[in-house]
């Protein structure tokens, strides 16, 4: 209730209310000032309200006192039960855990005022799940209540937890939640075989590495705690078998490690041990975590193919061995109780197999063709053996035949060498290391020897130093070499092998003399470099060469212009007897065409002067403004040609005038003069061919043919 000191109780004062919840939650009596709640209040929704009140004069509507503010606080009552906001819960705890092992902590929330009374004081208890688990009433921590809970007995537990306010007193509100607890596995159980003896039957034809049976030990644990490792206990019979673990079924898979033979042994007995891979030291006191069982294997008799005496045969034969020579034999036997005969034949795959044959009964292998080691050094093929009683049962063996070498090829220099020697070389200097190669198969320890040929051993230029490791060095024997005197040296080297019979060959090394600097670095090996001035720079040499090229071009142009002028003079001269030949570009009309052109200019002038007219040529007057007498030096040739021309002119069966036979005569007084050596006034002895020796090795043969000096073999070493 609100009351003003100015209110005399005569109705002159009016009370007003404003602020939080005024008119909706709270209302005020304007006359008495009583404040009433017009709806129910919830502390959890709004714990307090702030209001303002004022007293005003009814008549003047003016405030009688200043506005005052006050707070209405909602008092809490226990109207909310505890709630598990995170429930239901899921938890796990290892099996065989001791009493009091921590499992999980639960928490309930009460919306009531924790500062007023016991409305928000929560107490926890277990309604379902005893006697396996317990809970702390204040903290809500769940723990194990029984020792040695076994997952293999019971794995899942459902616990019902209650939270009650008012401290658990009568009349308090309560809420519940569910906790699902799972016992996790620990390795507390060893593997156990369900029976002590396992019997297996295995055919003797089983392949090595194949699975021949399975055994299984049972482990009630789960996951990695149930993983089992199987081992064969060392002892009689176990060395032929092996055992592995199937990771999906945890079974022991027995595999064959060696072949079985019923005729040798019919049964095997051994022990297998199963043990856990992951042990828990807390349970060692329970006992050994392994178990043992006996495996008995009976071998079943099967009809088997023949068996070769060796897994592979290796034979040797010399090349060029006569056809039909026996080089070896293979042997196979039928080991079954009823022994059967064996037949042999080759497994044909390619043409290489045709080089050999095999005797079907004896198994002997012989050559069928001549062998060449240089062509094929080794042959690899297969021989098949089958039983006569059952040809479908076959076995195969590989045969390797190595062709032995017969020393038939001499050793040669392995690669072509480009050998050079400096002009300033010193005696004993190594200018080249050479090696040799032999087409024959080099046996272990074969060596090559190097030496100079007998004709070159006395020359003072070079020598060969055999290093006795299949290499040799070419060494100089002179103090300096001159390219001007001799640019190339030919050194014959004899190479011998160490096989029987000894083979040898003579190999010629070409040694080029080069210009080098003081350190021995080659600067030039060209022939032209000999004539270059020493000491000039590269730029100076290029300038000199350019000047020479320009002078040559000028000379060529000048000569060409002179010849062109002479040619023009000759072509325009009507007195030149070659005029018709130069302008002749018409084939003519054949034998009947006698008007095409004048062929008389091509004929011998003497014949024309004699007026010997051919019957197939139309007569015409020939004019010669100028006639040069024939050269007196060529009298015999001229007479021979004139005689042949006269014979053709008077021969009625001669071809027409447009044939080649009518212009075999060149004419007299050629401006270009004759290029033939027949008319030369000089003899071969008058010529000097010594300049050919300066043109290098390419013109050496010409220099030897035309030079005055005979070939001197001392210059070639």
Automatic annotation (TrEMBL):
Keywords, ordered alphabetically: Calcium, Cell adhesion, Cell membrane, Cleavage on pair of basic residues, Glycoprotein, Membrane, Metal-binding, Phosphoprotein, Repeat, Signal, Transmembrane, Transmembrane helix
| Protein's membrane topology | Single-pass type I membrane protein
- Which protein are we looking at? Cadherin-12
Give GO terms for biological process: adherens junction organization; calcium-dependent cell-cell adhesion via plasma membrane cell adhesion molecules; cell migration; cell morphogenesis; cell-cell adhesion mediated by cadherin; cell-cell junction assembly; homophilic cell adhesion via plasma membrane adhesion molecules
Compartment(s) where it occurs, according to its Swiss-Prot or TrEMBL record: Cell membrane
Record domain Cadherin: where: 4-84, 85-193, 194-308, 309-413, 413-531
Membrane-spanning parts: 530-561
> What the protein does?
Cadherins are calcium-dependent cell adhesion proteins. They preferentially interact with themselves in a homophilic manner in connecting cells; cadherins may thus contribute to the sorting of heterogeneous cell types.
| Pfam family name, one | Cadherin
Say where the protein is mainly found. membrane
One GO CC annotation: catenin complex
Q: Which organism is it from?
A: Prunella himalayana
The answer to keyword Transmembrane applying to this record is yes
Q: Which GO terms describe its molecular function?
A: beta-catenin binding; cadherin binding; calcium ion binding
